[in-house]
Specification:
Blueprint lengths: L11 E7 L6 E9 L4 E5 L9 E5 L5 E4 L2 E4 L6 E8 L4 E7 H5 L3 E6 L2 E5 L2 E2 L10 E7 L4 E8 L9 H10 L2 E7 L5 E3 L4 E2 L7 E6 L4
Antiparallel strand pairs: 1-2, 2-13, 3-17, 4-15, 4-17, 5-6, 5-9, 7-8, 7-9, 10-11, 10-14, 12-13, 12-14, 15-16
Length: 209
């Protein structure tokens, strides 16, 4: 693949392919990511920044970056959250904004669906076809990222159930689907999808050189 990074010490591209069954999506799956090298950032980097890999993950209803919390609605409203704690453990599940703010998270983001929790895949998630971004954590603590961009006319995009299957295949223990506004990925060598300046990006320090 032309997206294969030249330096795979920080992570590797496990998969970059077209869904030949329905021709509905392209996807990049990143595996082996050190949790300490992953951050949530407002906006996005240069499309060909050689020191980072990143993918856009939309504009969430609630997010935490360090000590900063932002949310839409009331502080006791329950959100489906995905968050990284200080020990590098990815937590997924229901949280109020108040609970999330007082949980000591390094960063966190509201998500569309929990895909896997404690190694148990979710089912009957609905949602149809769309561009989607997913994040998971394997049993060894490494992070898995999936960026799936729609293609074609109909169906166009990936389903939540297919994201569950991908996360299960790559050994995720916990995983969630993050709202995507047109999935975009770049690693300094190549890119997937069309860039948007809106929302947040999941950034991996130490991309291709």
């Amino acid at each position: 693949s032309d997206l294969e990074p030249k330096n795979t010490k920080k992570y590797k591209i496990a998969l970059h392919y077209i869904d030949n069954a329905s021709y509905a999506w392209d996807a990049v799956v990143m595996t082996g990511i050190d949790p300490a090298s992953l951050s949530l950032e407002r906006g996005s980097r240069s499309a060909l920044d050689s020191d980072y890999a990143f993918g856009l993950c939309g504009d969430p209803d609630a997010y935490i970056v360090g000590d900063y919390l932002s949310y839409r609605g009331d502080e006791d409203e329950i959100y489906c959250f995905c968050a990284m704690n200080a020990e590098g453990i990815l937590e997924v599940g229901a949280r109020t904004a108040y609970e999330a703010a007082n949980s000591g998270y390094v960063w966190g983001i509201s998500v569309d669906r929990v895909l896997m929790q404690n190694s148990m895949p979710a089912s009957d998630l609905g949602g149809g076809y769309a561009s989607r971004v997913a994040i998971g954590q394997a049993a060894d603590g490494s992070i898995i990222l999936v960026f799936a961009n729609d293609r074609g006319i109909y169906p166009a995009g990936i389903t939540y159930d297919k994201l569950v299957a991908i996360m299960f295949e790559y050994g995720a223990v916990n995983a969630a689907a993050i709202r995507a506004e047109g999935a975009f990925y770049s690693d300094g060598v190549g890119q997937l999808g069309s860039k948007s300046e809106n929302g947040f990006s999941l950034t991996v320090k130490g991309g291709a050189n």
